[in-house]
């Protein structure tokens, strides 16, 4: 894929908004896959020229039908291919010959159908590239551009009313995507674009969405993903959406082990580790929705025009219990339910003299039916409170009072700037429609309203775009290293130290005498560790002796380590024994760098020992990142409070740990793609800051692609 | 409250199903609170006699209106009181005088309105008791018995269609309860009883529900709670529901800190610790729903007649992605998504020859529109697999194929016994109605269907009722103890040892010589600990010395502990120094007993040290319980894997820990209400089993009620 190709961008734009469409393999039976796009294009009033191609017919529904691509009277902007798989490659070649540059391929029988299908799909991609035709599909439902009435699809979705609106939705799944599109319609949110990528033989999710979000009529971008192969492209999309101020909502299936297993058998796309995916997309400001319901709830809140600038939630409710339930959920999803200011309390006291406790949640009871100002003034006062960034109003039923309530909400809307959401349980249809017509989001359940408010708050509190870019790339390349595989500890340690990572001092002793002089030079107790290019985990060969502090102990330690290693692993090549200063610290961290096949260099941090093994309390970021992002990583750890000091231990310096992580991330980036794995375990953190005690650094055996960060290749 | 009163039970039954109703304070304005019950009773066709009481009218809507309670021509089974708060007590007295034994009180202005209101409510309760009138309310919406068309309510709910059905729903909140009732109607599940308890001045949630579940027309009991004061009564209800095989679904608000704060300001009911509530209700087989949506989803699955007997979930789906999402959620909520047996795979291969991977989830694709047997045979094969206990079928839209699909589901239903649920996203209304008419549960979102299936599975896998009862109460009462407050360590230790709890051996030395001989008698290293009735936490006065193993060390240790204590806490009374055998063990647990004001004796277990402080990895059960229940507690700990051995440590004996917990629970029960608190911290667990190293036992200062377990009172 060559994204930065202006011709390609132009062709994608013409695919999405074509002035003319050829339907190859068109059928006069409008119930068939090959007939349905014609039906929709005609019935929904597509203004461009529609040209069916099929030697069987002379006309279909009054349109001239052409016997072949070659016979077409003009170069269509888009061809829809509804042919058996075996005929698709030839057709694409014909399209290229005719000068038609974009095709939507409905046909199945490609990558989703075993090895033969995969081979056919590869051939299709090559054919398309040679013919200079871009492809949506194969094995896709096609797409809808509801603004221009382009129905290049056979999806059931097109059977219903499909008014255009501010949402662009791109889905890798046809069936699930159609369901989501139908839900968007049910809610009346307005779907401007609906695209199904199918097998992504050419155009993928991110490239397509990149084109859609350029459309000023689009306010919200949403995607349903099952797999991902081009992480960089997704990150470019995320950055662009942030630059444009358009929320990007993503749902990706395959969160758990069993789900990943099912995903692996279902899709050809690479099953990226979900923990990494989750961390990286959040890092770049994507709003992740765990399922379709949450996706819709987020769409709804981002379709209303107001944004929140903090996480203070005000709740006005007709039921105290509902208020409690929403306050519970708010705490779980990162919202605060602040106590109200004195001024706000006084205002609430004026409208509700009978009720003493005018706290937050505000229980307005059902009395606002008789006294509308009770609700109006309460909500306005809430939103005027400086601690409140977004409010939720909870109601139920009220079938007889819909008009009065809509009037109340209109007044609240006029008198306030901050966003407010309505939760209306068992709401009359007229209430829902009325609120949405006013661009007020409405939810059927309290916890869902809270989750939507939390999404609004998270989005509003994202650091401004650009803040996560690399300020200056530290480019310390280990020239003269030993090449691929595990790197010698001393060199690895030196490279990292030069990059600003606080490594415990370590030297290599090739014999006892050398070990003794290194111990003397150290001037205090040392650790002795066996060094071998064949032994990444020294403890497994019993290859570490701690706290050695006299000459005899150094000498016997040296001998003992060599003997133990010969015993445990006779074939291991021995480089000598490492002599390392002893490090202290009451907090044990593990830090690592992995090269993710989708997202590149990923830095991990977590608590060491039993906590990483049993609790898996770790967190990830894509490298590089700045120290603020690194501090956010530390905050995300479930056992984060350990850093603040527990059981009488002092707090440790989070800034120093964050600096370590950020510097490491820059170094790892500059080493891409040469560095394949790096483990700093343990990193001991005491009052003097962190110290990396052990380090395993592994370079790629074979470089799978050219280095792109100015790094010298190994000899 | 005196539950076991047959007269009271009979009166409750007449309240719920009255043959005649007096409406005190009746209004001819059917829009008013005091007019609405009359309207509903007349319009919905209540068959009994309705007698309005109000000196202002001679007739209301054709019914004779009586000037006073005394003037009523017969003793009504039920009186509805719709009077101002100030007149309610007099009215209740009049009802008692007339011989009317049950009243529903709509009036507000009681416990919910500050101190004056609380006093009035107390007076109301006393008046009712003296007058032998049972009360529902005050400050309640009343109730609906939809079977007998009893509409003793002014709730908005009664405005709509209210066909009777298998659900009994009792709510402490009027507004939220009405919303839930309306949702039950929207789904067409059938609400037989709908009661709002209001302030519970007399009848509470559990006592009312106890009467409702006796009705054979009721299949599912559901409650919405905001607070709880009588835990024993709730447990009796839970046991009864299990005996009757009727699921009891509870939603209680106030799960989190901020929610609890809001609850405290909202309700007069005692804010029971949610962690304890959650553990105890699950212990007794209650199905807890976290919010109203989940409550409705559970109601729906329990309204269908089939039950699951294990946790194996089979998924048949039209979208691979939806299958993955459901498999993910299944793993999170305790369901397995097992691989299918060879036989099942062969059957699936027969119907879907084109698709190789016929795993679970089974992706039937959209082709079943043309070939219905694809769906039918797949689902039947899934349900026939011995590993599968419940299935979910995922569909979307299919507006044109509703009848065909209903026919498919009818055939599946005929050919199978196990439960299956349908998830139909963006379903046509006719599909939902058709499935519910066949008693098949249908959900609008995949994850919600999975959660419902998980509830069905959890319910089906509950241990049979009775399994959680005490087999034999160990009644070891510490006769001759020192009375209230903190108990001496040696005595406390002895009582627990006699009860079967493995305590580390400990003796009290009053002087150095005695300490030395106790050390000698121990025959190995000992711990020395200061003993004082004023010092529960010995480490806080630096009052513990470990691993003492020679005479000098014992003597100097004794002196040092006395000096340190005099330094840190000069006023503390010193009993001497404890000499305790040293215990080993690589796992550190904390075990505790608290006397919960609602549920009584609660046993807690968790991991000690940093894990209990930061992660709060603890779990609770109401005492007493058997070792199986104790093992379930260990399984619930998030760090449970530590017990299986990590980082080269051996596994510990879960049975031995479970025995400790169960024995402790029996002892704690036998000590109720005398024991107020007990901390066993740490409990060290090694290869030889657990050993309790430190124990703080506190008795009640003043007994708040008589002991009920045969325990002697302190002198």
Automatic annotation (TrEMBL), chains A, B:
Residues 15-110 form the CoA-binding domain. It comes from the Bacteria. The keyword Nucleotide-binding applies. Keywords: ATP-binding, Ligase, Nucleotide-binding, Tricarboxylic acid cycle. Gene3D superfamilies: ATP-grasp fold, A domain, ATP-grasp fold, B domain, NAD(P)-binding Rossmann-like Domain, Succinyl-CoA synthetase domains. The keyword Ligase applies. One of its GO terms (molecular function) is acetate-CoA ligase (ADP-forming) activity. This is Acetate--CoA ligase family protein. It comes from Flavimaribacter sediminis.
